[in-house]
Amino acid sequence: MTAILALLAAGFLGTADFLGGVLSRRVPMITVLVLSQVVATLAVLPRLFAEPVGATPGGGYLWGVVSGVGAAVGVSALYRALAIGTMGVVAPIAALSVLVPVVAGLLGGDSLGPLLIMGMVVAVAGTIFASGPELRGGTGGAKPILLALVAALGFGTNNLAVAWGSAYDVSATLLANVLTTLVLYLAAMVVVGVLPRASGRPLIGIIAIGVLGFLANLFFAVAAETGMLSVVAVCVSVFPAVTVMLGRWFLKERLRRIQMIGVVLVLGGAAIVSLSI
Predict the structure, then answer these.
(1) What pLDDT shows up at residue 186?
(2) Domain ranges of the chain
């Protein structure tokens, strides 16, 4: 059951990322971010009615705030990267988010095992293969790659904080997560001076992003609470594959052979790292 929940979270997240990247090419990105987060915030209400915050949420709120900051950074960086770069290259690099819990573990005293080292080497090699042509003048140049790396850091922080917060209280963690992200997006909206407006098909897509994003966080939190974090991490780490497939189907993206090899290596390395956690 844990693996199913985590895989569903990956599917929701990968689809939301694809929609976010596509819509950010058509409407101002701040519109996509703010309106989709409003939807995600409203989507958490049924969860709160079904399972209210406990009397002693402990660190749930704290880690929820941390995860909200990570989510805001990760989503905004990824959407921008997907909007100006090649989805088939950008999305897999975001899978390097799995390295964040690894670094956290090392700082906490964990040792580097052979499986972990192999996974990290494979993932880094894949990133070089996948991003090389982009850095040499492909779509968007180096900027999408750098943004994808920032997104990986943000997503890794979000996932780690959600997992830690869920150990205290799932509802408190999710509530703090969506509210923190919304506040940050609203602050960014004030800074850029753009009033979010959308209608028709873009609005439908934005609503879908908000619902899918919330469901991804919910399923990840429940899976992390009920199962082994290593199993959850390896299942969720395949979310970029969903974005890649949607990009190939709907946007007719084509990757060079070296980039395809790189994408496979990045996803495979991320999976190996996840198994070693």
Answers:
(1) 97
(2) 2-276
